[in-house]
């Protein structure tokens, strides 16, 4: 969620740290005073002679009274500390609650969390879960290869011969513009009934599979129909897998032809615009279909490349980047006479989401000029691939060249860099309509184990920028069983609504023999995948025994989290995996870097560290102690970690065997007891399987009570640990009411409420009416005050949260309160734990008045005496509130109390919004430290449409040979080209699309973005401290002092006389970082440690490289094409014939 801040964009000095200057005027500092030497600021009392201190403290223009002296303000601070401590001792009930726990010692046991045993058990459980999926995957892959090998190719197969459930059929029937509606599809599409299944979060049919075919593939083609024919046999294997393991979720076969067959059947989730889903572009398919890649993309930007051709190239590069995953490395360069990188990246960089975004934006700035220089482009690319000083994939190496054509074959370059071993594959792409001889391009690809492609139009881009994966799959297929290894993906969003999942993948190979010589086929048939929902993995981890601040996490070889409590993406893009680095999920430091590296390397370990953590509401930073323990999850690429605070080493386990006592305590959960015992909120946990969840706690409590009237806490359908602890804590907190709260008058001490919250899930608020204004989360583990109280000693103040853009607090009916809480620490037999938090809710207005009195010169309850014109005395916060500002600020820099009545409605705001000048001085004098980080999971309002997305695709991509074939013009292919032209009219640009809307949920209205977060926390200064804010004629004296045993800073300052010091406001509000986070160009220079997959298949001596694409030396003229197209429009109706976008050798 957060990473130590690097600047948004270029680095720049911190203006805040240089804004405060020491006074330079002798009249203000006193005769003979000197500017302090460089170094940490010190109290003025230590800097000046005693005789000179008094002139310093005299307020300007006021000889009758002076700014309070340091010992006076220290006295006020002690009075404040004593008042807070006294109230908490009387009403908080910390000591009394300890006694209650000890009195009920026979009702619970103290259990120990043993980190090493816990983490090994959870890792073993996860391994077992995934291993069951692996076995199902292997059965599917073996069956698919067997079925395809036994299948007999049918040249004359027809659509009506194939019966299947088309997952997109219902959506297409509802869409009058659908391709199949217009063509009058002849396929026999099944109509199915579906039932709701909570496991899939969808309606499913367990008797059939469903088929999804990409929009730009003709369903009636011979290749597709044969594919549908042989994959139908997988249906029985899918069902048998589910019979053996009923927990299986989606089982999917993604074919290299683009067909997706999945089980169980469910209707396709129709997008709002064009359906751009193609299984071959899904993260799991890409990972399973080839080994990691080092790719250099070079783009011809010579003068001949302009207009439409240049746009085609830009879009092609963006689509090519989308075929890369986080296991791959890439760079993009443009060339004419010289080659240069298109972005700030000067070497191969990881193909992660943020780096690819930099490339896509940079590509749009390419301009065509100069002459074509293939030599410059290829030399640059080979140099990139041979650079030994950078992190790379170290597996498949390839160069992808996009050009409009040329005569030079640059054989000398290949001889120098690539021959005879040919370790780098070269793929060439002829882009646009032109009259160049493409034979040199084909030669380059064929002599370097690559492939030649043509991209004459926008519709050809997506198909031809992903077909290269077939070539990369050849060594895998030829390696046979050695390459049949299950890989587990990063986290990503399931396209069918399952939520966040990981997928186990296994490649499926073509085992048929080619030709009479029985040459082994080297085509990959596709990838088999089985999903595992993250929620299913989370269920294997301890839920509530680790305490509010303990948790389990898991990472992969890239350092990305698979499990983490901070993995909460606000939006997800179907085209991209959810990649949150462990060091972004937490606040990065050297210890965590070391832990992350050890986990990636597959080691075991344990380490106790001091680290910073961000509060749940993201307003505060706490420095805490944490114990990290980690082990690898065998047979996977994952590693599991456990984080425990020292106080969570032990936990309570209730032992309520006495059913009479169970009933007695349970009665205190009934609303009828609330008036006398206080209102009870219960944590919305899964206590029993049949318990109906509800966001409304009153309704949830009602559901809980109704269920408990039918079952007992010992029922097998219930979580006995959760239920017993809940009922025990109900009785424990009721005894606190009985012993402490019921006989106290809260009004006497200006309290709105008292409360107790427990690990067992009980929050008891007294009196009952105070529950009406209780806004804290009923789940203690999700309540910021609860988690912070456990991590901090003493009393933690929490003012009401306010946003600077919202109107101030409305102080009506004394309902605005300030929460003060503290943890209850038990010591039982030498074992220490913190099972509860207690506290009070202060009446804001009453305590603001009390604050004035405590910070005044009153000695008794007598009336305050204001300094007269002839008397000499010190100002105080009560009498002199017109001249003196007195505030309490918490450790996050938020206003808690003020002696200024007009500031009461600003309580809870960041103090810089109240008094920017004073907050800046506190920061500059090290009372506060700033922590900047980035939230990579934020959601922002959508930006205006850009030109970086995938363009709407044409329906068919004709080859040059097709254009020369007159019969083609009466086929479905011509009709598809015509539809491509229609797409260009319907959509404002062929080269613009919104991937989120095209593939995502139509209800999504926001897009992911990076937000810069800034939090403040107490710095190194603990002493009482006086200083001057030097602003010329507007200088101000101030005093600041930490209040012992609290998270408060007591500040007394002169009120500003003018506004000359308003510059330099500190910001705390979350802001959108325009550069999408830390400068990527800087980050790639210090890449984080990672490891790629341990297997690589990039070479096989038996590979047949003769199939390397085809070219056409004599393309027809544009005039002929236009004439024939007009003829088609005027007189020839479209007549569909079998056509498909497929690899030329994709004959099954």
From TrEMBL:
The region called Disordered is annotated at: 1-38
Q: Which domain of life is it from?
A: Eukaryota
Places the protein is found: Membrane
One GO term describing the cellular component: monoatomic ion channel complex
This protein's membrane topology, according to the annotation, is: Single-pass type I membrane protein
The alphabetical list of record keywords is:
Calcium, Calcium channel, Calcium transport, Disulfide bond, Glycoprotein, Ion channel, Ion transport, Membrane, Metal-binding, Signal, Transmembrane, Transmembrane helix, Transport, Voltage-gated channel
GO terms (molecular function) for this protein are: calcium channel activity; metal ion binding
Ranges where the VWFA domain occurs? 294-472
Q: What segments bear the compositional bias annotation Low complexity?
A: 23-37
Homology family: Belongs to the calcium channel subunit alpha-2/delta family.
Q: Which PANTHER family match?
A: VOLTAGE-DEPENDENT CALCIUM CHANNEL SUBUNIT ALPHA-2/DELTA-RELATED, VOLTAGE-DEPENDENT CALCIUM CHANNEL SUBUNIT ALPHA-2_DELTA-2
Protein name listed in UniProt? Calcium voltage-gated channel auxiliary subunit alpha2delta 2
Instruction: Record the organism.
Output: Bos taurus (Bovine)
């Amino acid at each position: 969620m957060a990473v130590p801040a690097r600047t948004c964009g270029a680095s720049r000095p911190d203006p805040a740290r240089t804004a405060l200057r020491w006074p330079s005027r002798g009249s203000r500092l006193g005769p003979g005073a000197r500017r302090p030497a460089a170094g940490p600021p010190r109290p003025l009392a230590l800097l000046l002679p005693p005789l000179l201190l008094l002139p310093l403290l005299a307020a300007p223009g006021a000889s009758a009274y002076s700014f309070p002296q340091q010992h006076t303000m220290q006295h006020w601070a002690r009075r404040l500390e004593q008042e807070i401590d006294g109230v908490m001792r009387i009403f908080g009930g910390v000591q009394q609650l300890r006694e209650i726990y000890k009195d009920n010692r026979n009702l619970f046991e103290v259990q120990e969390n043993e980190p090493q045993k816990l983490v090994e058990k959870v890792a073993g459980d996860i391994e077992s879960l995934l291993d069951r999926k692996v076995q199902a995957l292997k059965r599917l892959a073996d069956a698919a290869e067997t079925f395809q090998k036994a299948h007999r190719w049918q040249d004359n197969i027809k659509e009506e011969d194939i019966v299947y459930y088309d997952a997109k059929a219902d959506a297409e029937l509802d869409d009058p513009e659908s391709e199949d509606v217009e063509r009058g599809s002849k396929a026999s599409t099944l109509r199915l009934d579906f039932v709701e299944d909570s496991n899939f979060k969808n309606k499913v049919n367990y008797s059939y599979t469903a088929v999804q075919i990409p929009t730009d593939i003709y369903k009636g083609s011979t290749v597709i129909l044969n594919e549908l024919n042989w994959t139908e046999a997988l249906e029985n294997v899918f069902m048998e897998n589910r019979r053996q393991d009923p927990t299986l979720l989606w089982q999917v076969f993604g074919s290299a032809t683009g067909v997706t067959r999945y089980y169980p059947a469910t209707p396709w989730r129709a997008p709002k615009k064009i359906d751009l889903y193609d299984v071959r572009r899904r993260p799991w398919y890409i990972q399973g279909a080839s080994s990691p890649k080092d790719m250099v993309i070079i783009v011809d930007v010579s003068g001949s490349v302009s207009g439409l051709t240049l746009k085609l190239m830009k879009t092609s590069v963006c689509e090519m980047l989308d075929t890369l995953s986080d296991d791959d490395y890439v760079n993009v360069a443009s060339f004419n006479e010289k080659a240069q990188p298109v972005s700030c990246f000067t070497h191969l960089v990881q193909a992660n989401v943020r780096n690819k975004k930099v490339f896509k934006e940079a590509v749009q700035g390419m301009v065509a000029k100069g002459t074509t220089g293939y030599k410059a482009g290829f030399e640059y690319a080979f140099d990139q691939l041979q650079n030994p000083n950078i992190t790379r994939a170290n597996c498949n190496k390839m160069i992808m060249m996009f050009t409009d054509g040329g005569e030079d074959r640059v054989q000398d370059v290949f001889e120098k860099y690539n021959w005879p071993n040919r370790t780098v594959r070269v793929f060439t792409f002829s882009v646009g309509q032109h009259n160049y001889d493409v034979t040199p391009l084909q030669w380059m690809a064929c002599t370097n184990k690559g492939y030649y492609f043509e991209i004459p139009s926008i519709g050809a881009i997506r198909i031809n920028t992903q077909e290269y994966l077939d070539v990369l799959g050849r060594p895998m297929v030829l390696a046979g069983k050695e390459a049949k290894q299950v890989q587990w993906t990063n986290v990503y969003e399931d396209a069918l609504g399952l939520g966040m999942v990981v997928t186990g993948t296994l490649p499926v190979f073509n085992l048929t023999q080619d030709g009479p010589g029985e040459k082994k086929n080297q085509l990959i048939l596709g990838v088999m995948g089985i999903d595992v929902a993250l929620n299913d993995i989370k269920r294997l981890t301890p839920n509530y025994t680790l305490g509010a601040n303990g948790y389990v996490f898991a990472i992969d070889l890239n350092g990305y989290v698979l499990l983490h409590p901070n993995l909460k993406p606000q939006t997800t893009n179907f085209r991209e995996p959810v990649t949150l680095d462990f060091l972004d999920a937490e606040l990065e430091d050297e210890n965590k870097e070391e832990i992350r590296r050890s986990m990636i390397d597959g080691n075991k370990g344990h380490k106790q560290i001091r680290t910073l953590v961000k509060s749940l509401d993201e307003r505060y930073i706490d420095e805490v102690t944490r114990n990290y323990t980690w082990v690898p999850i065998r047979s996977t690429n994952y590693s599991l970690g456990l984080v425990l605070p020292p106080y969570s080493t032990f936990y309570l386990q209730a032992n309520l065997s006495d059913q009479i006592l169970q009933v007695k305590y349970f009665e205190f959960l009934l609303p009828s007891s609330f008036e006398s015992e206080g209102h009870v909120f219960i944590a919305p946990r899964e206590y029993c399987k049949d318990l109906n969840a509800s966001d409304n706690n009153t309704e949830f409590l009602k559901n809980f009570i109704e269920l408990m009237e039918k079952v007992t806490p010992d029922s097998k359908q219930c979580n006995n640990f959760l239920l017993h602890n809940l009922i025990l804590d109900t009785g424990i907190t009721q005894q606190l009411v009985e012993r402490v709260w019921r006989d106290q008058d809260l009004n006497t001490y200006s309290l709105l409420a008292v409360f107790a919250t427990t690990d067992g899930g009980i929050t008891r608020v007294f009196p009952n009416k105070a529950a009406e204004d209780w806004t804290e989360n009923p789940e203690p583990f999700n309540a910021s005050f609860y988690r912070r109280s456990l991590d901090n000693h003493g009393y933690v103040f929490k003012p009401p949260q306010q946003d600077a853009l919202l109107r101030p607090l409305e102080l009506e009916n004394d309902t605005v309160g300030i929460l003060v809480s503290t943890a209850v620490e038990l010591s039982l037999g030498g074992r220490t734990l913190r099972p509860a938090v207690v506290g009070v809710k202060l009446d804001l207005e009453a305590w603001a008045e009390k604050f004035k009195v405590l910070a005044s010169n009153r000695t008794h309850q007598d009336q305050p005496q204001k300094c007269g014109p002839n008397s000499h005395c010190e100002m105080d916060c009560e009498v002199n509130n017109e001249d003196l500002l007195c505030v309490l600020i918490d450790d996050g820099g938020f206003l808690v109390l003020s002696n200024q009545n007009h500031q009461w409605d600003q309580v809870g705001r960041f103090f810089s919004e109240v008094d920017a000048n004073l907050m800046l001085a506190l920061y500059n004098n090290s009372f506060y430290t700033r922590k900047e980080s980035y939230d990579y999971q934020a959601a922002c309002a959508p930006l205006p449409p850009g030109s970086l997305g995938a363009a709407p695709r044409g329906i068919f991509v004709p080859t040059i040979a097709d254009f020369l074939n007159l019969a083609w013009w009466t086929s479905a292919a011509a009709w598809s080209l015509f539809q491509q032209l229609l797409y260009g009219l319907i959509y404002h640009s062929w080269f613009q699309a919104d991937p989120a809307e095209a593939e995502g949920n139509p209800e999504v209205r926001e897009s992911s973005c990076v937000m810069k977060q800034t939090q403040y926390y107490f710095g190194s200064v603990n002493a009482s401290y006086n200083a001057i804010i030097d602003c010329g004629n507007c200088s101000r004296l101030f005093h600041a002092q930490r209040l012992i045993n609290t998270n408060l800073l007591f500040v007394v300052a002169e009120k500003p006389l003018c506004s000359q010091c308003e510059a330099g406001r500190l910001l705390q509000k979350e802001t959108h970082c325009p550069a999408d986070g830390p400068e990527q160009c800087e980050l790639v220079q210090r890449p984080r440690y990672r490891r790629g997959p341990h297997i690589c298949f990039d070479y096989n001596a038996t590979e047949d490289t003769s199939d390397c694409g085809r070219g056409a030396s004599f393309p027809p003229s544009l005039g002929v094409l236009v004439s024939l197209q007009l003829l088609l429009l005027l007189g020839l109706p479209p007549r569909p014939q079998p056509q498909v976008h497929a690899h030329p050798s994709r004959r099954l």
